[in-house]
Specification:
Elements (H helix, E strand, L loop, with lengths): L4 H6 L15 H26 L6 E5 L28 H11 L7 H26 L4 E6 L28 H6 L11 H13 L12 H15 L11 E3 L8
Parallel strand pairs: 1-2, 2-3
Helix pairs in contact: 2-4
Length: 251
């Protein structure tokens, strides 16, 4: 699970998350931005040291497509017996229902996911521009995936086979030993949920494919990457940025 989204999803409760409750504020984002800038700058310097300043390569910086819909589809608003967030004592049924859709979170947490992705993406675009200015001899490009997965994110459609992201999937203790993910939470109680959440936090493989693009999503990402790589090398810093549009990639 990517930074920030883990806390958003692993706290399966009737309370909506906030960036503050996840420990994500302006200082945290600024720290992360400085760390990312430093890491990429080190790669560029290392490439120059190993292969010389005239070595021909393209460096593409990609931002973050939010795995969670901006607005939840009607199918996932209530559990099959009609329970929503206002019936907190029944929230476990609602969480189980949304787990099938891949997003067992409070409806108001969808806004937090959207805002978090927006903040991360703004920061990455700033990093691209700073790197392109500082290392103007290097062919650096930026592909913006903010809109690329629109209509194909988790809980954005009633039919989960249309999703381009893997749903959130847990392994409980007995499944962890078998390397098997649970496709639903039927029969799970609070103890099972806590065990699964702990496994996910302490053992990355317990939910490592969750919230990442699936095969269809990777096909879309490849299409976006091909588009940004097709931009002429003599383009300006601004023209080296590509905002990849939503829609199915060509076959």
């Amino acid at each position: 699970l990517s930074w920030g989204f883990q806390g958003l999803l692993l706290d399966i409760s009737q309370k909506a998350c906030s960036k503050e409750s996840l420990g994500i504020d302006g200082d945290a984002l600024e720290e992360a931005g400085a760390s990312i800038f430093g890491a990429i700058a080190e790669v560029i310097v290392t490439m120059a040291a190993l292969y010389g300043p005239d070595h021909d390569y393209k460096l593409v910086i990609q931002n973050y497509p939010s795995p969670i819909a901006d607005f939840i589809h009607d199918e996932w608003v209530r559990s099959p017996d009609g329970q929503g967030e206002n019936q907190t004592w029944k929230y476990r049924k609602l969480a189980r229902h949304r787990y099938i859709g891949g997003c067992p979170v409070h409806v108001q947490s969808f806004n937090v996911a959207r805002d978090l992705a927006h903040d991360l993406n703004e920061g990455l675009e700033d990093i691209y521009e700073l790197l392109a200015l500082q290392f103007n001899q290097v062919d650096i490009r930026f592909v913006d995936l903010s809109d690329a997965f629109d209509g194909k994110r988790l809980c954005e459609d009633a039919d989960t086979t249309n999703d381009w992201f893997n749903p959130l999937r847990f392994m409980n203790n007995w499944q962890f030993a078998q390397g098997r993910y649970a496709t639903d939470l039927e029969g799970w109680d609070k103890t099972h949920l806590n065990q699964a959440s702990s496994n996910c936090t302490n053992h990355g493989q317990a939910c490592q494919e969750s919230m990442h693009p699936n095969a269809k999503g990777h096909k879309k990402m490849a299409h976006c990457l091909n588009q940004v790589l097709a931009i002429p090398s003599n383009a300006s810093i601004n023209d080296m940025k590509l905002r990849c549009a939503a829609g199915d990639p060509p076959d």
